[in-house]
Amino acid sequence: MDYIKAFIVGGLICVIGQLLMDGTKLTPAHVLVSFVTSGVILTAIGIYEPIVNFGGAGATVPLPGFGYALAKGAVKAVKESGVIGIFTGGVIATAGGVAAAIVFGYIMAVIFDPKTKS
């Protein structure tokens, strides 16, 4: 059942993104920034936590989940370190995911022959 819930939540997030790109003049970059920002805002007002509890990886893996991780990290760091945690918490909380994306992206670039689209 967890897989189905993750699929539904992640799928709905992707559908929203696709509808935004198809139905508006927003570029993928605009949608990316909007989703990360919405993840932070929804976490701050207490709405995203129940979505994460229900959808699991379906809510934490997409872009709003990155915003969720940033916000949760900042809140935790503020409780532990004070005001400096505002600046350090989100970076520390998401460092593992960012590092993994860089390492795996580099490995794929070495293994395969990347080409630009023409």
Automatic annotation (TrEMBL):
InterPro entries given in the database record: Spore_V_AE, SpoVA
Keywords: Membrane, Transmembrane, Transmembrane helix
Coiled-coil zones: none
Organism superkingdom: Bacteria
Keyword Transmembrane helix belongs to the record: yes
Transmembrane segments: 6-22, 29-48, 54-71, 83-112
Name this polypeptide is given: Stage V sporulation protein AE
Organism encoding this protein: Anaeromonas frigoriresistens
Keyword Membrane: yes
Signal sequence bounds: none
